[in-house]
Amino acid sequence: MARRSYEQFCPVSRALDLLGERWTLLIVRELLTGPKRYTDLREHLPGMWNNLLGQRLRELEAAGIVHRRDLPPPAARTVYELTERGRELEPVVYELARWGVGLLDLPTPDQPLLPHLLPLGERSLVAIEHLPDDGIVVHLDLHAGEHDGDLRSTLVVDPVADPPVRALGRVHVEPGLVGTPDAVVTGSLAWLLWFRQGAVSWQEATGEGALVVRPRRAGPRLRPLFTPDPVTASPHRRLGPARDAT
Hints:
The protein is an alpha+beta fold. It has helices at residues 11-19, 24-32, 38-44, 50-62, 84-87, 90-101, 118-123, 189-197, 202-207, 219-226; strands at residues 66-70, 78-82, 136-143, 150-157, 171-175, 183-188, 211-214. It folds into 2 domains: 11-87, Winged helix-like DNA-binding domain superfamily/Winged helix DNA-binding domain (Arc Repressor Mutant, subunit A, Orthogonal Bundle); 94-242, Nonspecific Lipid-transfer Protein, Chain A (2-Layer Sandwich). It has a 5-stranded mixed beta sheet. A hairpin with a 7-residue loop joins β1 and β2 (78-82).
């Protein structure tokens, strides 16, 4: 089957000719977290037909966005990973995720949190326009709800480098509580999300104990990292604390 094309001399339409097909950007999202076996991709994209996954991977390989690599023994497995050209899509996926934060409600049993995507998800909560020049390390120990339990991760913002790097390249999220933090945030993931969406104020989130920042003096440094902006805020889907997730 021939690929569909918008047939327009426009960089947006040319990009969508390649990336606009259903599931394609979700494959890119998966590979941004690291190389994956075919079976990993099938597991993480359960609604995708097997033959369609194979077709999309072939298209991405032909476009130079994805390539296959054989792991040495004892693994002896073939994995798919992004090429350098493919990794250039990272800021595109970040901006799309940041825009989509405003559309999120809360996890459910039918649509649970996906632990392997936690680093990408938490990066989308960070406002890269407000990164501190001197960097910061934050332990996030958040309760995601009765179905998903506790999520523990470490947010690292590197100091400004010379030569400078793209702002998004300074932000990293590691699973677990790693190293010595400058600040620790405990409490409700939902309230952090609501603050990022602009549904609650920082004073409400921290004053009601839904989010606890230690030491307290770190609060003014943390607040800009998650401050809502017009990209993230979505007045049509703001749920706020009416649904108790604490």
